[in-house]
Amino acid sequence: GAGVSQTPSNKVTEKGKYVELRCDPISGHTALYWYRQSLGQGPEFLIYFQGTGAADDSGLPNDRFFAVRPEGSVSTLKIQRTERGDSAVYLCASSWDRVADTQYFGPGTRLTVL
Amino acid sequence: EDKVVQSPLSLVVHEGDTVTLNCSYEVTNFRSLLWYKQEKKAPTFLFMLTSSGIEKKSGRLSSILDKKELFSILNITATQTGDSAVYLCAGIDNAGNMLTFGGGTRLMVKP
User: Fold this and answer.
1) What's the DSSP call for residue A86?
2) How far is B7 from chain A (nearest CA, A)?
3) Chain B, window 15-54: residues with a beta carbon less than 8 angstroms from a chain A beta carbon
């Protein structure tokens, strides 16, 4: 079946602009996660959804970052007033449920802030 | 704060060699350790280890967890150029909210 998909695959924007990154999880997966991966490092947790609600947003770096999942499927990560330090690959993962379930990752969106 | 450390940072071997990648972890209320292979962007799942001392195998790859010493190893035998990738390990706690990743080991297999 189809895996996790993310769009766009690449996004180049200017400092101060607003961006939206989209994640389509595997059908039927109730848990959805966003991670951020900087060059040469492992992914870092941003936020986790169980259904429509953000169950844990402790990894969001500041209030410029926000994510939604209004119907419990597709999720959008929104970044306001982008900064050069936001440049990274943003990875989305989904799983059937949170406990003891493997997280399957999408191909990510490479965000470059000029 | 949870922490996962991988070693070595990078490794260059020739086809046919055997490699061992290391992962040590400090995860409060630890539940499982996962290994992923990352070639371009998407980390692809390899193993999930929950019980200590039980080896998991998939073809030429195998992995084992030691919950007393808080580490795991990933072995790759008879390496091939297609094994070249970054290998990530990650710990997850009983709440299951997030994976805490190590920095990865970059493996390059030369022909």
Assistant:
1) G
2) 13
3) 31-32, 34, 36, 40-45, 48, 50
B82 exposure class (CB count in 10 Å sphere: 0-12, 13-18, 19+)? exposed
Inter-chain CB proximity A100 and B97 less than 8 Å: no
pLDDT in tens, B60-111: 999 999 999 999 999 999 999 999 999 999 999 887 778 999 999 999 999 9
Q: What angle do CA A68, B88, A29 make, to 5 degrees?
A: 35
What are the CA-CA distances from residue B33 to residues B37, B63, B96 (Å)?
14, 10, 11
**Residue A76, token pair as written in the block:** 């959008």
Q: What is the pLDDT of residues A4-56, one digit of tens each?
A: 999 999 999 999 999 999 999 999 899 999 999 999 899 999 999 998 888 89
Give the Cα separation of A19 and B92 in Å (integer).
Answer: 30
**Tokens standing for residue B110:** 């030369």
What is the SS3 string spanning A26-52? CCCCCEEEEEEECCCCCCEEEEEEECC
d(CA B65, CA B14): 26
Tell me the two tokens of residue B47. 């193993």
| Contact at CB, B99 and A43, closer than 8 angstroms | yes
Contact list, A102 vs chain B (CB under 8 Å): 34, 45, 48
